[in-house]
Protein 1
Amino acid sequence: MSSELHTDIAIIGAGPAGIAAAIAACAQGAHVTLVDDNPRPGGQIWRGGPSQAPASASSTFRQLADSQARLLSGFRVAAIPAPGQLLLEDPHRAQVLRYGKLIIASGARERLLPFPGWTLPGVTGAGGLQALVKGGLDVRDQHIVLAGTGPLLLASAATLRAAGAQVLLIAEQAPWSQLARFGWALKAYPAKLAQAASLAWQLGGVPYHHASHVLAALGQTRLEGVQLQLGARTLTLPCDWLGVGYGLLPNTELLRALHCQISQGAAEVDALMQTSQAGIYAVGEATGIGGVDKALLEGRIAGLAATGAAAAAQALAPKRKRQLAFAALLDKHFALQPAITQLAQPDTLVCRCEDVSHASLQLFDSWREAKLQTRCGMGACQGRICGAACESLYGWQGSGDRPPLLPTRLGSLLEPTLAKANPT
Amino acid sequence: MNPVMHGDVLIIGAGIIGSALAEQCARRGLRVAVAEAAIPAAGTSAAGMGHLVVLDDNPAELALSRDGLARWQARRHELPANAEYRACGTLWLARDEAEMQEAERKQAGYQQHGLSSNLLPATALRKLEPALAPNLAGALQVPDDAVLYPPVASRWLLQNAQALGAQLWCKAQVSSVDDEGVARLADGRLLRARHIVIAAGNASATLLPGLPLKPRKGQLLITERYPQRIRHQLVELGYIRSAHASDGDSVAFNVQPRATGQLLIGSSRQFHDTDPAINWPLLQAMLSRALEYLPSLRQLQALRSWAGFRPATPDKLPLLGKVPGHSRLWLATGHEGLGITTALASAHLLADLLCEQAPALDPTPYNPARFGPWSLADQHHPVGVAA
Amino acid sequence: MKVQLFIDGQAHLATLGSNLAAALAGLPGRCSVSGQPRAALCGMGVCFECRVTIDGQPHQRACQRVVYEGMEVAREL
């Protein structure tokens, strides 16, 4: 592989949105390059690639395989050395990718919030545990508790059970009144309702507690148990794994670095999925959490729009309204209860990279000041975890991102074509 | 509107210079207030390396940096642990015989002023820092130089001042000052003091148009944690040439081992780039330079890079003293890349002047009158500006 | 199908195609800056808690790497 690649359409993220965009753009005859930092395409929902994805995904994977799209798996976007260029890195090499148009399908991560014991090995995100199981983690006969909020808890429980785990219970923080309203509203979305019913069927027998949350993870050097608030009572349970996630957050680092407008944590896009920057599109969870159907649709729209098929893209736009309405439902009915942001004790670590405690952060009133004085957010994750936690706990907004986007080998930053491309 | 604060000294800017001065004035029993436009220690003070280094290009620079380092050394045990003070020393690296001769000259200069330093031949250098490129000719070791983490050290100075009664006004953007001791804030409030000291770094020029201060951009990059790879602050002898190159863009090898095990990699200088974003070609030039000295850096992971702006004067010396033609308005800025090293020295010198005491150092070389005079922001054209 | 990898020099069998964080199964891969053991949290390349040294390269995210025959993993403890 030469160290510099050219493409008409670069797509970042090979989850459903990115794959749909690639298929649509390839069908228009464009040269497409699909970049993903995971070993295989599929994103989080279809993690593990075609062999492990559900039947509903197989035609999408087949269309991708039949397309002319160039797939760069295991490559992360390290930096933006100049307009129209991305510096990519894999464990062995660095590449410059020059593009005409860019579609960002960067997906989402879990909102992970601090509680006592959350740094113990054995405590993971709820979706994180699902991802690990999809990645081959053996959970046969393991005792697992899931807590947090949102439909992901159910999906994760289903994956874990299918893998042979004993899911002891699910603690959903939303109160029954909110859940009932969500269930009622789902009637307008038969497909989602069917998914929910199917999950409920797979989960037969797993206790599902509403208005419930984790209080603490217990153990010395590894998770041994969990203390829970279940409605009005507390319960302590021994367990092997604890998965806790408070919904999803769009990954916006690349969008921010490209100066795309972000509002309420997601990329702002027009009807054709274009961001505030001409020629840069955002699709899927990056524009707001809405699930796989929204992702597939948005990917198609952007794939068409970016290749000049504006009319065909426009024709799909009305369908998006319905997906956005569903996204709004999720937001509304799984909003966090105040107790969730008050679980951290003074000695609970909020920044896990630099081990910064809740007590030391409470002394400050801005992210910038806390960062300078405590190193919060200065570690390897670059504030991806603690930034969201600080926003939930203290109401702080993160400040400017500093390249590279992810820790990158110095040698990669010296990728020679970069300098040649940017004479001063 | 009546002034909302009365005191002896109002300091504009809570960077390391303003904070050190606030502490020094408060220690002398003065009633002090500090007006900070944004967040303490978040400007140039947060952007630099925190290398406490004695530089010897001219007697005035040597005097101030030497006094500054001595004062940090004397207080090292008072500093909080997260100020990360470490007396790691500096190795001035020579690539060839010509640079070795420069090292010898440098040593003679230090010796003349009673400063200790050791000339290291190539073998001794390799023993001290095995990661360095094998083709280096040697180095001059200055064992007393040190490093610290400036935002925490700066905040500590400010907290000391506050503990002695100094008031801190945050988000207090000063829009104008006069020679009657009145500062007007952007929100209309007035602050009054017997003396006003402008210690606002590059922003000082907005209050004193025509101030001979130019932002000189610098870029740094920090790696993930790789403990024990390097033990000294490593600087190429060509650093002085880069630091003092009067105009064009330049880079010089300068690497600091942080207490965390991270490596802080510099350095670059630019006068004409005012964009706070990273300049990639220059970052690459800086990293290429670093790899010439430390080839094993290539495999290390970069965590973050950023740019900052040093407040630079035409003669590389700070502005410490009265604003020319004024009786109650003072300056404490223009330290370019030496503000951390010289903060305590500058604070002592200016506090002495404010208290009408004779400073330990001759203040003449730092007197702003060497460039002045200037008019104030709300008046008309600046007069007699040295560019 | 299994592949053999080495964790701190000890041979381990892992399922072909699984990722390294899954293969480590909650075994701490690193010590935090204050000395606490840490293992995978997010499972998807975001949190950097699962960092280990792979084939001599420190600070690699285990969850982003598929195991292979002869992979040498050193925990950063």
Protein 2
Amino acid sequence: MDGEISVGMGELEVTDDKEAVLATFVGSCVALCLYDPQAKVGGMAHIMLPDSSKDASGRGNAAKYADEALENTIGAMAEKGAQAGRLVAKIAGGAKIFAHEGSEDMFAIGTRNAESLRKLLQKRGIRIAGEDVGQTYGRWVRFNISSGQVKVGKRGREEKVL
Amino acid sequence: MVMMTSSLNETELKTLKDLLNSYIGRKTKPAFSMILGEEVEYSVRSMNLMHLQDIDGILLPFMNQEMCAIYLRAEGDVRIGMLLFMQESQALSLAAKLLGKDTLDRLDSMGKSSLAEVGNILLAGSVLNAISDSTGFRIDCSVPGFAIESLGAILGDPIAEIAVRTNSLILAGVELYAPKSNVRVYIFLFFGLDDIKKLLAHAKDG
């Protein structure tokens, strides 16, 4: 797709290009889409894990952890003219891909990612305008900067628009 | 303080491949052969160092391929993500064979459970056992998780869990093929760089 910018695992992209579409694929990871509708600046972060405080080393990717991803995305968007008070969020992903017959918590990394991000957004006073999280399947996420619309595609399921 | 390493040289990668060949040949191949009741062929297809920022590009062509997968997470002296996966048609053939049926149209709970058990035997019971025997490492293993999903979604959990500390991982790929049943399965093993260095330092072949 023309103008589509791929956002890799643990990475973030911010743009004010109104032709751009930020895109990623998430399973248990979460795609955070932040948008300033007035400045038409958008940012997408591909979050892999809920909390950087448990990581004693290995920093380097701007969006690996939910807490760092949120702050880094807000910071990068501010540099392009976005204002924190105008931001709205849309989130997708956080699936529990692997099912098993034991503890519910065993492979619940996706659930923890989504919960952590919700709390962080609430703490920052950023409204979640739409979300498609949980379940057991992967999702393609495409964030249109011109409209702020986020399209979520799933294998064998109808596309959802946030 | 934990020392982080950022790469492996060609000799280390070759030694690793030889070690894995030995583990699979001695433990996993006979185990799969016993499950199926026939001779099995195997091949260690790849042993690659992958950096987090490159993973999407490498895996993108395969992202939408639907697979049936069993995932086990091993933790202790080293952390290893272990994935057994196959195409759904292969999963149906394998489950049918395990359940003593000619064919299966869909994977019911018995079919899924039987495949999870195969994952348990091939990954925890053979690969992990071989690593533990060879190194003396104490390693605990999770119960098997089961999924039928795109490869992109399936790979997310092990990549996140292993690559998180060093932003890179070693991905070892193994193929097992049973010609008589025409069943082909794949094993991916995910190691962190520090853990692979530990393994190289402690492993005794044979």
